[in-house]
Design brief:
The chain is an alpha/beta fold. About 35% of the residues lie in helices and about 15% in strands. Strand 3, helix 4 and strand 4 form a beta-alpha-beta unit. The longest helix is centred in the C-terminal third of the chain and has 25 residues. The chain is globular and about 55 Å long.
């Protein structure tokens, strides 16, 4: 029996579309700001620009497929063996590698909801089943419910801390209790894309947790705090067998030569980059304090964004921001996420928020 077009996988019908943050647009005479993608507002460091400029001379050559120097630099930075590091095209690229290496069709992936919208996408691409466990009224993971959601078909549990898009962070004691309740053959992924913005003393040391648990791995990125979102490079800290599996599932030559060089240079400039992160955290604190003064009751954010679970008011709120030249990220009627950006953008956002503040 012939078909009029190529047959594609039926699993693709279950793949939700990833919705990127809208580009910045503004009325005439108004500076536009993009607060929709949690990007670092600072331009690249001069030392990073220099290695990128030098790297242009050799982009006619393939990059080091094994990312040897980058993996060595990350391993030294984290304090682990290079065999415990795998890299990919941003943390979202590694997420795909994780699901590819763990899930067959019908296997389950457990995560909080809302959380990072790529989770159900990478699961569906593998034919795996997404098990979404709602966050609580404070926008936090309900780890007890997540542990209870684990079945014989569960292969992966993803914990996002700080959680994107709600900003909340896991605490050490609740994480240890969760890990004690989860079978050792279930991989637990600690997704720390926003780690460098965390100031909560109760937040766990994920690498310490990884050392103590053979079924835990840590996921990090150079996109946010390091300001390399456009170069697409992230890394995983994993035990040897998992790290080797992630490397098997990586796109060959996926982390390009410019990304490798820039990431290595950024690790060397860590202190300078953390000064920038501290400035973003100070702006976050200013925005949160301003919102509190307006009467907002917000869940505590430890990331570089704030979350407004506004229900049916989401569209009007997002539109008001856009009318003021601020692009924010709306998630249907669930909420609106607003990135902490430039000082002027944050100040203008507070002005818009005042018009929606609770009476």
């Amino acid at each position: 029996m012939s078909h009029e077009s190529p047959r594609l996988r039926s699993a693709l019908d279950a793949v939700p579309a990833y919705v990127p943050g809208k580009p910045a647009v503004a009325p005439a005479g108004v500076t536009a700001y993009k607060l929709s993608s949690n990007e670092n507002p600072y331009p690249p460091l001069d030392v990073v620009r220099a290695v990128l400029d030098k790297g242009l001379d050799t982009i006619n050559r393939y990059p080091d497929m094994a990312s040897t120097d980058l993996i060595a630099a990350i391993a030294a930075f984290v304090g682990v063996d290079p065999s415990n590091i795998a890299v990919g095209t941003g943390s979202v690229g590694i997420l795909g590698q994780i699901i590819q290496s763990t899930c067959d069709a019908g296997d389950e992936v457990v995560f909080a909801w809302r959380s990072f919208e790529a989770y159900p996408i990478v699961a569906a691409l593998a034919g795996a089943v997404s098990v979404r466990v709602p966050v609580d009224a404070d926008q936090r993971h309900q780890l007890g419910l997540m542990a209870a959601a684990v079945t014989e078909r569960t292969r992966v549990v993803i914990l996002c801390s700080p959680n994107n898009p709600t900003g909340t962070v896991l605490h050490r004691a609740e994480l240890e209790e969760f890990l004690a309740a989860v079978p050792r053959d279930v991989l637990v992924v600690l997704d720390e894309a926003y780690l460098e913005f965390v100031r909560d003393p109760e937040a766990p040391d994920a690498v310490e947790v990884w050392r103590a648990n053979p079924n835990v791995m840590v996921l990090r990125t150079f996109s946010k705090a390091y300001g390399l979102a456009g170069l697409r490079v992230g890394y995983a800290v994993a035990h040897d067998a998992v790290a080797a599996a992630l490397r098997k599932c990586a796109v060959p030559f996926g982390v390009n030569s410019l990304a490798q060089a820039a990431a290595i240079e950024s690790l060397g400039a860590y202190d300078e980059l953390m000064v920038r992160c501290a400035a973003i955290v100070a702006e976050r604190d200013r925005v949160v304090a301003g919102l509190a003064a307006q009467g907002w009751q917000m869940s505590e954010t430890q990331a570089n964004f704030v979350w407004f679970p506004l229900g049916e008011r989401c569209t009007a709120f997002a539109q008001a921001c856009q009318d003021a030249g601020l692009m924010v990220r709306q998630y249907g009627d669930d909420g609106v996420r607003v990135t902490i950006g430039e000082v002027e953008a944050n100040t203008r956002f507070l002005e818009v928020a005042r018009g929606f503040a609770p009476a």
